[in-house]
Amino acid sequence: MVYPIRLYGDPILRRKARPVEDFSGIKRLAEDMLETMFEARGVGLAAPQIGLSQRLFVAVEYADEPEGEEEKPLRELVRRVYVVANPVITYREGLLEGTEGCLSLPGLYSEEVPRAERIRVEYQDEEGHKRVLELEGYMARVFQHEIDHLDGILFFERLPKPKREAFLEANRAELVRFQKEARALLKELSQG
């Protein structure tokens, strides 16, 4: 099942998500979240982005696509899938600025989002088993971005104040459009 992705302006994106306590349906939910993420051509998707207040996200590591080949379906390029419930970052090291975008802010990017270069994350997998991952570089950035979603934080809020204000000003029209679309979707969902 492909879910509609909640856009900037939807209140669920600003709330701290509740811990996952019942793991009985998580495997199926994660499959649907992955399907939704592939459809949107993303690398990660948090439960609040599909309207669920749960501390859960999915992410994938893709293999590089060979140059000059036709664009393959993303599913064929997956090297590793992560299903992450109740994550906690227990260690951070280094600081790098990098480019980030978001499926809830389609088409908007910032090149200067600061994130830890290396992290350690304790979490539970789709069956509730405790796991620990050490990540660096791009996947560390992806995990930090998705964990922020679980805390109601959007990537541009990580920018230093002057850059955040410049991002908001430069993208004002798009943000207003997202807010209107978010309200329309919420109205549609409440009636359906």
TrEMBL record:
SUPFAM superfamilies: Peptide deformylase (SSF56420)
Membrane keyword on record: no
Role, per record: Removes the formyl group from the N-terminal Met of newly synthesized proteins. Requires at least a dipeptide for an efficient rate of reaction. N-terminal L-methionine is a prerequisite for activity but the enzyme has broad specificity at other positions.
UniProt gene name: def
UniProt-annotated binding residues for Fe cation: 102, 145, 149
Family: Belongs to the polypeptide deformylase family.
Cofactors that this protein relies on: Fe(2+)
InterPro entries: Peptide_deformylase, Peptide_deformylase_sf
Keyword field contains Protein biosynthesis: yes
Assigned EC number: 3.5.1.88
GO biological process, one term: translation
Protein name, entry field: Peptide deformylase
Reactions listed under catalytic activity: N-terminal N-formyl-L-methionyl-[peptide] + H2O = N-terminal L-methionyl-[peptide] + formate
CDD domains the record matches: Pep_deformylase
HAMAP family listed in its UniProt record: Pep_deformylase
Top-level lineage group: Bacteria
Gene3D superfamilies, per database record: Peptide deformylase
Keywords on record: Hydrolase, Iron, Metal-binding, Protein biosynthesis
Residues at the active site: 146
MF-aspect GO terms: metal ion binding; peptide deformylase activity
Cofactor binding remark: Binds 1 Fe(2+) ion.
